[in-house]
Amino acid sequence: xxxxxxxxxxxxxxxxxxxxxxxxxxxxxxxxxxxxxxxxxxxxxxxxxxxxxxxxxxxxxxxxxxxxxxxxxxxxxxxxxxxxxxxxxxxxxxxxxxxxxxxxxxxxxxxxxxxxxxxxxxxxxxxxxxxxxxxxxxxxxxxxxxxxxxxxxxxxx
Length: 157
Known about the structure:
3-stranded antiparallel sheet; 7-stranded antiparallel sheet; elongated; mainly beta
């Protein structure tokens, strides 16, 4: 790890519990769904949501060798997002061993907002696995069996 700096008046960092439930969508699929999101606000940067891994469909994230260093948070590791062949390199990051001042974000993941979208959800339990699976005509591993047809094929008697 590089030199550590502490947040202060010249570079404030706050981490607060987000008051609601947030979903992360990638190409129309919910890949994270949590009522346990932390919002990190750092200096003049836009706020960042950090999700617990248990609320993220980690099957669609693949660790990369990319790493960065933040003097306030520590070393970040990255994941590539891969859903049905749509691959976004280093779209997700995590601090697995952040500096003590930022230990609250340990092992949580954050997503680049130019790659995914976020939506607020009103109430209810979270169930990422049930939401991610779908029945479209692709061949990705995220899909359940197709629904049985409710009409006959054209020309069939």
